[in-house]
């Protein structure tokens, strides 16, 4: 029998902060469905891009990882490889986090005074910005993207007007999140839009460009150029090995910024946040043979994306694919009998397909500008065929 809890005077509401007790935690489709064909979390369906084991240290051999030692606090050799890969001048421009999710949380902690400062996000967007805001007791200002016709473009004038007004208020905005390519929009943000926010003379906070899906987007669309070639010191670019590299399990996120901001992030991180096995796997992925595999997988997924979109559009109940093809997922809008977007039908199909057919996608119909939309990760050729076949059946039932 469980003992009677003691002491009697102890209650959670006295010990835990109220914003934490009130937190709506991040939820994913995997909380409900976790087996079958998983096209819900924008993972890399082709698997990781790690070449077979090697004994060559230059190719990232990892037979002796000295696991009895703590990992390197800064992983300078891994950062050198990232510099070469992303054309970044120095390891002092790079922070390594336990996924980009850790970098997002640390940005709140370095920039925002809880209960006072605010952040700006542009829905529909990645849910963790708001979850981290609540954890850090920071208010979120939401300025929707222009969603007309699936444009999914930030309204730069409104963003700048909001940032300027906030600068004069007692509750300034300290972080502005731009997700490019966006999740769930799949659409890159033009670099000129980002420049316009960076250049706002009233805004003294940071602009965070989250590029988790950048490898699937057009060449030259990364905002790293704005940092390296143009010298914007209020810019932080986030990337990750979870998507293009197919290494979601190792948890490695990257933040690129000025050496001063990177130093602040390094100062507050846990001393050994990146494990030795994670760093070794990342080095292997960034080795020449790893990068060859990475590029081959990207081309396959990009080809699968266009086959998947064409096949979905051929289904009578798919009205359109919203947004641009810049990520490893597509946003398909479901129509009802009247040919209009049908949110109820989209949700039912999502649930039935996950429960009965074990094909899991993500229902995004409750997000701004995504009425009746299913977000479908681009899978292998077979997975794409399977999801189209199941949808064809369920949508016409
Ligand atoms: C836009 C965006 N940013 C960040 C992340 C988190 O990436 P990581 O695995 O590096 O924490 C995701 C994950 O789905 C994402 O969609």
TrEMBL record:
Its cofactor is pyridoxal 5'-phosphate. Pfam families: Aminotran_1_2. It comes from the Eukaryota. Pathway: Amino-acid biosynthesis; L-histidine biosynthesis; L-histidine from 5-phospho-alpha-D-ribose 1-diphosphate: step 7/9. HAMAP family: HisC_aminotrans_2. PANTHER family: HISTIDINOL-PHOSPHATE AMINOTRANSFERASE (PTHR42885:SF2), HISTIDINOL-PHOSPHATE AMINOTRANSFERASE-RELATED (PTHR42885). This is histidinol-phosphate transaminase.
